[in-house]
């Protein structure tokens, strides 16, 4: 009987040891499987559409800064991050950086605006947590005018839902033990349509020091095709990638060649471009502080700032491709050995 008990104990010990080894091997295997394509493929046209048909619906009343529809929008974003288990950098369930009425109104002469909020979510870096990669999009639009809802599906519902899907992909990577080396701040800014006010407020009241902010990848209108590209829809305009950092521009080019092969159009990156788009979206408030940026943009179209900018007109396959490009670029910036070098400071 004694021999049987000893043999049983020995077998149990061997089994436990084998089980622990298998668990360690599985965990190690997971950590080695850090191919970003695994996570980029979770960004789908279907999921982007599911979000956008809610976010750009009449229920959200055009998301005018400080008004009831915009409050619905920020709560939609907050609920998404809570449900995905993506933390707030502010702690607990507080995902709102308050932007007070006094600030908005003082910066928008002749217009009294209600309190508003930026929405912030955060994945902490595994090796360089104090270095921050910002991915941004503006959450607001034009509201209701003359009884018509300005849904803002492309402007900037497309960038907003892209940011949600990118955050989800990074979270899945983190859950697999492949979290980014640098921290990532997912920043939804308010008041863009009032003069880039939410991003201005953030850069004047940063949650993380601007000196530690590596780059801002800003997404503003990536769901449509402009007249210039009717015959070549697989494109995106890049603006500002080379303004402050040669390295960021080259990284962006290399990432696109490696993963996506989208036609990168630099027409609006020209210093002499009369549209001056470089100065007209939220990345510019980061660029003013010598933080390298890339602005992703599909150009304007007949529905730009019209009540006809609705979710049924979005090209979701293109939105998927462009969103994956931003994800891959963020992945490379967040995981490279050295932070992006600024060699063209203002």
Keywords:
Peptidase M28-like protein, 346 residues, eight-stranded mixed beta sheet, 10 helices, Aminopeptidase, 10 strands, Peptidase_M28, disordered N terminus, two-stranded antiparallel sheet, M28_fam, alpha/beta, signal, 41% helix, globular, EF_Hand_1_Ca_BS
Give your account of this protein's structure:
- The chain is α/β, with parallel strands linked by helices.
- The protein has a single domain (about 35-335), classed as Zn peptidases (Aminopeptidase, 3-Layer(aba) Sandwich).
- It is about 40% helix and about 15% strand.
- The chain contains ten helices and ten strands.
- It has helices at about 1-30, 35-40, 45-55, 70-85, 100-105, 155-175, 195-205, 245-260, 285, 315-335; strands at about 95-100, 115-125, 130-140, 145, 150, 180-190, 215-220, 235-240, 265, 295.
- Strands 1-2-6-3-7-10-8-9 form an eight-stranded mixed sheet, sandwiched between helices. Strands 4-5 form a two-stranded antiparallel ribbon.
- Helix 8 (about 245-260) links the parallel strand 8 and strand 9 (about 265).
- Helix 8 packs across helix 10.
- Mean pLDDT is about 90; it is low at about 1-20 and about 20-30.
- Keywords: Signal.
- Pfam families: Peptidase_M28.
- It comes from Tenacibaculum skagerrakense.
- This is Peptidase M28-like protein.
- GO terms for molecular function: metalloexopeptidase activity.
